[in-house]
Amino acid sequence: MNPIAIGTLLLSLASPALGQAIYKSVDEEGNVSYSDQPPEDARSEEAETLPPVNTLPEQRPSNRTANQRRASGQEDRETIEYSLSLASPAPEASVPPGQRDLPIVLNASPGLAAGHAFAFYMDGELLAETQSNEYVVEEIFRGAHQIRAEIVDQNGDVLRETETITIYVHRPSILN
Length: 176
Known about the structure:
The chain is built from two helices and twelve strands. By secondary structure, it is mainly beta. The strands form three sheets. Strands 5, 7, 8, 10, 11 and 12 form a six-stranded mixed beta sheet that branches. The protein has a three-stranded antiparallel beta sheet with strand order 2-1-3, with no helix packed on it. Strands 4-6-9 form a three-stranded antiparallel beta sheet, with no helix packed on it. The longest helix has 16 residues, at about 5-20. It is elongated, with a radius of gyration of 29 Å. The relative contact order is 0.16. Residues about 70-75 have low confidence and may be disordered.
C-alpha cells in the first residue's frame, strides 16, 4: 500500500481525538487521573480544555559575511576579555605524508557569548567562521602554512587573536 495513503489514513483517524475534551477525576485518596471518558458522577462543566501546544518560530542561522556584519552597524553591548590560544597544531609542527587532514583546535576562556564566533585562518585566508573551537582543514597541500584564529563579534570586529604559527606539510615526491 502507498505510504502516503497510510499516513493520510492514520491522520484522519487521529484528528477527531485532537479536539476532544479531557476529564480530570480525583478519587477518595487524592489520586488524580485523566481520561477522555467522563467519570460516572461528572457534570458537563468539569471537562478540562488543554492549552494550545507551545511552538517556537523557525530560526535560521545567519549566512552574513564579516564584511556584511561590519556594514550593518550592529554594536556589541558587552566587552568580554577572552583568553585564546592554539591548542593544536603546535608551532613548527610537521604533518607527515600519511596525514591528509589537519585539525585545528583552540583553547578559549570563557565560552563564546551570543553573537561571537571563532574565525580560522590559513595563509591569510578565512577558512571558516563557526561556534566550534575545532576546525579540520581537509586535504591540506604540502609546504609551509601560517595558521591563526580570532574571536569576532557580530560586527566582524576582532575581540581576541592567537599568535600566527607556521606548520610544515610533507607529501611524497615522485623525485625520491
